[in-house]
């Protein structure tokens, strides 16, 4: 399958972002939501920053103090055996040993960037969405954007010690935002909302992470107002001994094609190598899977996809679709944004 | 506080139930949902059965095979170190060691019982709700019943290897049932739906169990059709060093009082001692907590509450409210059903 990566990749890197605090450094700008507004490409970038830490015996964890309205920095001793510092993304609880995290190593917010040519972006200085309440004291992550009629619906993970859920805001102009609250309670992320009603109902893919039984897999839910969701059904499962045997979740907003709804999702192996795959869902009944890619349609191959803050990640949250072309902006190695063009026809032909 | 336990407790025990298969034994009849229908008390009992196992080296796990439509029995070797058999309720994964379960030791279904005097029950022979699909192959558990206008809404945990979620069915006559699908995706249980709209919206308490961060605590959600739910908010947290420091979840359908919505919830300590507590929620805005009980309003004290299939459990899912009186039917030690009368006034006076 042709995957036309842009020669100038990565198109946005941490060097392009000024930290929003002088004592912080930008470690990642990645996983953008994508939309067209006023004939320009809008990216809602996830920016991850961490406190600059010069003492190698220390680990600094940023936490938003929501009544105070500012980030506080917790200093942890790297020799403290109650913590597990081996994952670059999270500080785990070494006492519980159940895989749960105590803190994140960085805090993410959402930043807007705008482009006329889709390659060169003007990046805002001030955050577009910033932590603001008890549910996002560890940050806001991985936005997706679905345009329905006059509104852009923007939804993203909110992370706190109470869990990871998904919040929805809507806007007409990427300026005034209306909060619609948490649409999927913890633990859930990787929501993608379909861009139109299907037989009168809205649909979304979501990815619960249950504790006592079950895997991080893709479910589908329906709604009549985009805020309240129900009739949950399991849609797509992990596949043993394949590239998506560790965790899967929605990626791009589903694309309507003649053959069905085409969803480009992410799948990680048990070794945390993140690829993108495709699944085709019935046009009239999107809880019915018609076909699924055997092999990834995009996988970490280039240096910027292999090496970074978290290695071996391609992670698409949004794209512009023009005819047969999917112009995808995707996160690479939890560090930067890259651009690739994919053919819908090619993808459909590759599915089984 | 006065807690008038019925002298004839427990009122229903496993001996009162005939196993639905000859090769099974009933180990529990407990945690009933409660309603009044045709001037009679209806209990929807959770019945737990397990395959009779005479070989002490073996453990038999019952699993509903949903395409076949019948329960299959998996035989496990008790010396198999990939399993942890120490919890009487579940068989855990001894390789993952993350607390997740592989199988349950019993399979639950829901059985209807009817009474004119509220003490002596005629118990149906055939299950009222039985496992029927991929989401409940390990059973259906802990029903609650909310009556709203003409319908009785019955909702209960569905348990499978894909997780624990909550399904809703509705009925007018406890005979013809309409399925409304899974209203809360895994992992979630202990849903209680308020008995009327509040400022135009329906509300429910629910209890997600997130994996990567967060605790088993009580959240509140809203709906406009009882099927789709959103605007999730954290309502009630665990309390360190108190009787409800391990896990909490909704118990009875909330009771409307002059002071607010009174919710009797269950709380377990880290040592799995299950008590009932109370919380008072604002009449106009039930996501606002007005008061909460410092001490349990009911705790395991009697022999039938202390000793059983799972020791030290009082667990209320339903009650009949008459004036100041809460006539609660509650599960004891995951084994039997007991009856207690509580005074709303007493409970309200005890709250802080």
Describe this entry's structure for a reader:
Two copies of one chain form a homodimer. Chain A has one domain (4-350): Glycosyl hydrolase domain, family 43 (Tachylectin-2, Chain A). Helices cover 3% and strands 51% of the residues of chain A. The first copy, chain A, has helices at 303-306, 344-350; strands at 3-5, 24-37, 40-51, 58-65, 70-77, 83-84, 90-93, 101-104, 107-115, 122-123, 139-148, 151-160, 163-171, 177-184, 188-193, 202-208, 218-223, 230-236, 247-250, 255-256, 261-268, 274-281, 289-292, 314-322, 325-332, 336-343. In chain A, strands 19, 20, 21, 22 and 23 form a five-stranded antiparallel β-sheet that branches. Chain A starts with a strand and ends with a helix. At the A-B interface, strand 13, strand 14, strand 17 and strand 18 of A face strand 13, strand 14, strand 17 and strand 18 of B. Chains A, B: Keywords: Glycosyltransferase, Hydrolase, Transferase. Chains A, B: One of its GO terms (molecular function) is hydrolase activity. Chains A, B: InterPro entries: Glyco_hydro_beta-prop_sf, Mannoside_phosphorylase.
Concise overview:
2 copies of one chain form a homodimer. By secondary structure, the first copy, chain A, is mostly beta strands.
Largest interface: A-B, 49 and 49 residues
- Looking at the structure, the CATH topology of chain A is Tachylectin-2, Chain A
**Secondary-structure element series of chain A:** EEEEEEEEEEEEEEEEEEEEEEEHEEEH
Structural category of chain A is mainly beta
Uncertain segments of chain A: none
InterPro entries (chains A, B): Glyco_hydro_beta-prop_sf (IPR023296), Mannoside_phosphorylase (IPR007184)
GO molecular function (chains A, B): glycosyltransferase activity; hydrolase activity
Family (chains A, B): Belongs to the glycosyl hydrolase 130 family.
Pfam family, one (chains A, B): Glyco_hydro_130
